[in-house]
Specification:
The chain has 30 helices and 13 strands. The chain is α/β, with parallel strands linked by helices.
């Protein structure tokens, strides 16, 4: 029976055409929907990554850099020759008044009380008058504070009454003592802070002084000698008004007072002539005390000499720095002054006045300190064990060790087999500074917010930080920075970078391509051009097709068995006598590259076969008709024509290799490594593994740097793909 060769006509043809159009439209719609879904998914991915890679962060240092500088400068001040220190300002007054070569400083009130015995110096021609203090033209102006907690106010009614009375009458007393009255704005803020903490049913705008009569109990006010006269006056007025509580006033210095308040818990109120530091605040928090800051006035430091000093009435900040630091005579600070010895009278180590003077007169940034000083600070603030480890990695000086006996230098670094650190140049100033930041300052991201929250919920973020982390710095941060790209891995997210991971990825991809591309193309040429359609060749082809779909973890197990264990002498470098003891187990870049080469080899073979198969048979026939051999025809005509398709398949294969994690973990990739790979026999990590390791960490900031690392991975992937595409297009034009 002959087949039906008739064609539809009329309505049947019309119906068939309509059906085909419907099916075509349905498929077109399906493709469009798929494209839209893919675009939406990509946008969602990029949005999520970008949202995490940028945003506000609250950073709080374990140790403030300024405090390290301050501690150094205070040590120099306290240890300077011909220096007298005392926590009692009256002793300083007596010493300066009786010494014609003396110079000193303390609160302005003590000068006013003893103006007949002292000579006041201006600073840059400006005197500490009320007007100059108010407009802040006098350079040595400082606020005065009281600190307490809501718990103290809730448990001790005497503390509540004391602060209420203080804030009611402070401006009446503080001016009489010799300090400067609190402004209306400052007083309102102080009252609001007390009302909020007290728990009393008072409104900020409805201030009411509490009657102190009959209030009993115990109250401890400890701290600044500067504030002691004011505290004493308030306590005396309270007693006169019928306040029956026992008020224990101690003048021990701001630092000691805050220590008693925060760490020891023996003070109900701390008086301070400076603001509380981050370390002190955290000490309070650790002991269940959240400090409430109440500014109760302003003070100015008075620079004074003996009335017998006839050669100067003014000092510059530079002259002050010299007089209290390196000068042995007055002439060292100013040639016009006599070569008389300088006698320095300064507050003690626990004094807030000394803290303020050192911070104001010696405003040196930590990064600007010389290397010797930075090394001293590092050595003083880390353990000996950590210091020795750092010095084993790289010495601080060329000729000596810091964290061991100097006599051991020759033994450690001049032997036939010196330690690794001995063969490297000594650390420079910048390197020591970075170590100091990481190991001592230790900035910690206490909280981080996404880009969207940073843009649209900034008020809530600022309120949260002000409440929970008042000493933290709130700043907008891009986790994707040049430092992030060029820095090695670190256990601290603030200092962590992806340089080591990028170099590891590039090394692994390079070996993968060098191994898989020639083998894959060669196999494709054999299967398409030389192999006969035998059972064995059909079996090989089938297995290649199947291997393209094998899970990557299986290739990892294969790489572990073959390259890491069986071929360990080769992959560790021991066969060539260049193996490192740390990588002698074969868990090296070479093993990883060979494993990924196996992974993408089936993909390259199949893509190359399809590209070769697409070359017209007539091209082969023409070449051979002109007398070329089969291999000459393949090399000169078939491969150039197929190369764009081969490169397309290779690009896809490399893209898969760059993003692989599982097989690399199996063959021994490191999840935390600080040393850049320097060859195929080195330990390594890659960007995907680094990202995986960061996302598994509990700290939120590690997810931020993981998002930044994903952006780096995408850029790296796109860059490699773009380079390959340009190469493919170049060969396509030639073909």
């Amino acid at each position: 029976m002959s087949p039906d060769t008739s064609y539809p006509e009329g309505s049947a043809l019309k119906g068939q055409i309509v059906n085909r159009h419907r099916r075509g439209s349905a498929w077109q719609l399906a493709f469009q929907v798929s494209t839209i879904i893919g675009i939406i998914a990509l946008i969602a991915l990029l949005y999520n990554i970008t949202n995490q890679a940028f945003g506000l962060v609250a950073i709080q240092n374990k140790v403030e850099p300024s405090s390290l500088v301050l501690a150094r400068e205070e040590e120099r001040l306290l240890s300077a020759a011909n220096t007298v220190t005392s926590e009692d300002d009256n002793e300083l007054v007596a010493g300066i008044a009786s010494d014609a070569t003396a110079i000193g400083f303390f609160g302005y009130a003590y000068y006013q009380q003893n103006s007949d015995q002292l000579k006041l110096l201006t600073v840059d021609g400006i005197a500490p008058t009320a007007e100059n203090v108010a407009n802040e033209t006098y350079p040595l102006v400082r606020p005065l504070y009281l600190y307490t907690t809501a718990d103290v106010l809730a448990q001790n009614q005497a503390a509540n009454v004391f602060l209420n009375y203080y804030l009611t009458h402070v401006n009446e007393e503080i001016a009489d003592v010799g300090y400067f009255a609190t402004t209306d704005t400052q007083l309102s803020a102080a009252r609001t802070a007390w009302i909020t903490a007290s728990g009393l049913d008072l409104q900020p705008g409805q201030w009411a002084a509490i009657n102190p009569e009959g209030i009993s109990g115990q109250l401890s006010v400890v701290g600044s000698s500067t504030l002691f006269p004011v505290n004493e006056r308030i306590a005396e007025r309270l007693a006169t008004a019928g306040f029956a509580a026992t008020v224990n006033l101690e003048s021990v210095g701001s630092t000691a007072g805050l220590r008693a308040f925060c760490e020891e818990g023996t003070a109900d109120i701390a008086a301070a002539s400076r603001s509380i530091t981050s370390a002190e605040f955290e000490a309070c928090r650790e002991n269940g005390r959240l400090p409430i800051e109440i500014q109760i006035g302003t003070d100015a430091l008075a620079i004074v000499t003996s009335p017998e000093n006839s050669f100067t009435t003014n000092v510059t900040p530079q002259e002050l720095r010299t007089l209290f630091d390196t000068a042995t005579t007055w002439a060292d600070a100013n040639e016009a002054w006599p070569a008389s010895p300088v006698a320095r009278y300064i507050p003690g180590a626990d004094s807030g006045t000394l803290d303020f003077f050192a911070a104001t007169v010696f405003p040196i940034d930590l990064a600007d300190l010389p290397k010797d000083t930075l090394v001293e600070l590092l050595a003083a603030n880390i353990s000996v064990g950590l210091g020795r480890r750092l010095e084993r990695e790289q010495r601080f000086y060329d000729d000596r060790l810091v964290f061991d006996d100097p006599d051991l230098f020759a033994e450690a670094c001049a032997s036939d087999e010196p330690a690794a650190g001995c063969t490297m140049p000594a650390r420079d100033q910048e390197n020591v500074y970075e170590l100091l930041l990481q190991e001592v300052v230790a900035p910690d991201v206490v909280s981080a917010w996404s880009l969207m929250d940073s843009l649209f919920a900034r008020d809530e973020v600022e309120t949260f930080v002000a409440t929970e982390y008042p000493n933290a710095e709130l700043t907008f941060r891009s986790w994707l920075t040049l430092d992030f790209i060029t820095s090695p891995q670190s256990s601290t997210p603030e200092f962590a970078g992806v340089r080591t991971a990028i170099m590891g990825s590039l090394w692994v991809v390079a070996i993968t391509v060098l191994v898989s591309f020639p083998i894959g193309v060669g196999a494709a040429i054999y299967l398409e051009e030389y192999a006969s359609p035998s059972f064995i060749n059909r079996t090989i082809q089938t297995n290649i097709n199947n291997l393209a779909g094998v899970p990557s973890i299986i290739y990892g197990m294969l790489g572990l068995a073959i390259f890491v264990r069986t071929l360990e002498p080769l992959t560790s470098g021991a066969l060539f006598g260049i193996g490192d003891g740390t990588t002698a187990n074969g868990r090296t870049i070479l093993s990883a590259g060979l494993t990924l080469g196996l992974l993408i080899l089936p993909v390259i073979i199949i893509a190359a076969q399809e590209a070769i198969r697409a070359v017209p048979q007539s091209l082969r026939q023409a070449g051979m008709a002109l007398g070329a051999t089969k291999w000459q025809t393949i090399w000169a005509h078939v491969l150039p024509s197929a190369l764009p398709g081969i490169l397309t398949g290779t690009i896809l294969a490399i893209s898969r290799a760059i993003g692989e994690t599982a097989p690399l973990v199996v063959v021994g990739a490191s999840t935390l490594i600080f040393v850049d790979p320097d060859g195929p026999f080195a330990k390594f990590t890659t960007l995907p593994i680094q990202i995986y390791q960061w996302t598994a960490r509990p700290q939120a900031e590690f997810r931020n740097i993981a998002a930044a690392a994903i952006l780096v991975l995408l850029v790296l992937l796109l860059s490699l793909n773009a380079s390959a595409i340009l190469l493919r297009n170049r060969y396509a034009r030639r073909a």
